[in-house]
């Protein structure tokens, strides 16, 4: 198990653990420990505790830096969606981690390998082990490979409505026409990338790209909000 797991994370994520015992612990469920007491193993629950905190900090940092228009309440709601049990279980499966978790026979027979709560804990445990083994930058690099692309692709866009936020900002002093225009398409049909410009009063405010027109519009609105926020800061500095 350990050798195959090491090969997987090295090939997919360029991760090579220095302390293999940490990696083994991250993939050891309490049910396995209970059935192999003579081996004096440690389960992954403490690593899960640490990984949960590491994950929340790094995702929070990313959201704070890339969503300057969102208030605290919406940032909290978005983070909760990204790090919820179902999301983390999905990430664990996509990483292939479900193949390597060590389970007791009872847990295995009750389909524990597919249980969302168990896979969520596994993902957090791996992150905790990685943090202890190689530090915050390694944990951030892993999250940047696994989670951030999902955010940028719009997987959580139902919680991140930049178009509505932009409309609220632009129309706070009265009606203003906001338009989204598809300016370019690239790539083959199955991997199409769309480019959209958002304008108000015939002035381009931002440009965004995405795997769908909807995602590209959201990205353009996000860029527009950042640009407007930066302009506001410049004006505020000149007035002080």
Helix content: 55-70%
Strand content: 5-15%
- Write the H/E string, N to C: HHHHHHHHHHHEEEH
Look at the structure and name the CATH superfamily of the largest domain: Ribonuclease III domain
Number of domains: 2
Query: For this structure, what is the CATH class of the largest domain?
Result: Mainly Alpha
Q: Indicate the mean pLDDT.
A: 88
Q: How many strand segments?
A: 3
- CATH domain topology of the largest domain: Ribonuclease iii, N-terminal Endonuclease Domain, Chain A
Low-confidence stretches: none
At CATH's second level, what is the architecture of the largest domain? Orthogonal Bundle
* Molecular shape: elongated
Radius of gyration: 22 Å
The biggest sheet, with number of strands, parallel, antiparallel or mixed sense and barrel status, is: 3 strands, antiparallel
Structural class: mainly alpha
Main sheet strand line-up: 1-2-3
What's the end-to-end separation, in Å?
63 Å
Please specify the SSE layout and strand pairing.
Elements: H1 2-13, H2 20-26, H3 30-35, H4 45-66, H5 72-82, H6 85-95, H7 105-109, H8 116-134, H9 136-146, H10 148-152, H11 162-170, E1 178-186, E2 193-200, E3 203-210, H12 213-239
Antiparallel strand pairs: 1-2, 2-3
Helix pairs in contact: 2-8, 4-5, 4-8, 4-9, 6-8, 8-9, 11-12
């Amino acid at each position: 198990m350990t050798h195959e797991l090491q090969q997987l994370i090295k090939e997919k994520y360029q991760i090579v653990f220095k302390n293999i015992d940490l990696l083994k612990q991250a993939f050891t469920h309490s049910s396995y420990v209970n059935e192999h007491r003579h081996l004096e193993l440690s389960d992954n629950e403490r690593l899960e505790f640490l990984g949960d905190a590491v994950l929340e900090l790094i995702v929070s940092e990313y959201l704070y830096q890339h969503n300057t228009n969102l208030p605290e309440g919406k940032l909290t709601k978005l983070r909760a969606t990204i790090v919820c049990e179902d999301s983390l279980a999905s990430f664990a499966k996509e990483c292939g981690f479900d193949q390597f978790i060590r389970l007791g026979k009872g847990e295995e027979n009750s389909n524990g390998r597919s249980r969302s709560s168990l896979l969520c804990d596994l993902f957090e445990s791996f992150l905790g082990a990685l943090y202890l083994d190689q530090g915050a930058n390694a944990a951030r690099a892993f999250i940047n490979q696994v989670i951030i692309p999902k955010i940028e692709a719009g997987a959580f866009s139902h919680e991140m409505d930049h178009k509505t936020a932009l409309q609220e900002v632009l129309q706070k002093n009265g009606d203003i026409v906001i338009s989204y225009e598809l300016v370019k398409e690239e790539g083959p049909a199955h991997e199409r990338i769309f480019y959209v410009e958002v304008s108000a009063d015939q002035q381009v405010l931002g440009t965004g790209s995405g795997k769908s027109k909807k995602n590209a519009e959201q990205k353009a609105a996000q860029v527009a909000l950042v640009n407007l926020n930066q302009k506001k800061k410049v004006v505020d500095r000149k007035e002080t």
